[in-house]
User: Fold this.
Amino acid sequence: MRGGTKMRGGTKWFCGVLFATLACAGETMNVSVCPVGRVGAKAVAGAEAEAAVLFRGVDVEIVWRNCEEAPIGQEAADRHWFTLRLRDDGPAVRSEAPSTDMLGEAFFSEQGGYVADVYYREIRTLASNKTMEPTTLLAYVMAHELGHLLLGPAHSPSGIMRAAWDDRDLEAIRMGWLQFGRAEIARIHKVLQSTSHETAHNGRGRRPVSGLQCGRRRVLCAPAANPPSVAS
Assistant:
């Protein structure tokens, strides 16, 4: 599939059909995709197009920004400006579970989360093994990590924010069916409507995660024959 030019079944959601409680005024967020190493511009452009379709389907418009313009710290949090570092290497710490691939991780500090790493080499390897378009898988990993930066480090039992994608999830990605849950969509809109998304990460009065290492979350994909891997 060429990046985002085809609307696949199930991708486009209409807010009024999903739930009446969410005011679907349409939100925007700033995202900078910053290649680190040798990552082709065509892959970046294709993944951005597909990720934009995913978020547009939940009435969120991504404004793609240059990396040189990206703010840091509290300013990044307040402006809902997220940076995805698209790396051509692998993670520094790998899972010991058999037949798993670590695809990305989001980082959190006292200001919340605004930076995530996405591992394109791992994504290409998994896509090749599963006969998938790497651009499509890359777009979904980007969506997953953006989901963490919006919602916090927790995972969901199903959908885009599941910690471990099995073969059924990968097939749903291939078909464009894997989605955010209704409650997640409502929270995403609430975060983007706020001046700062600190409360989304802190939950019910909990202290924010301190330090980048403590708040790290990983996406793992395991074959359906094995139990789903649990993100550390």
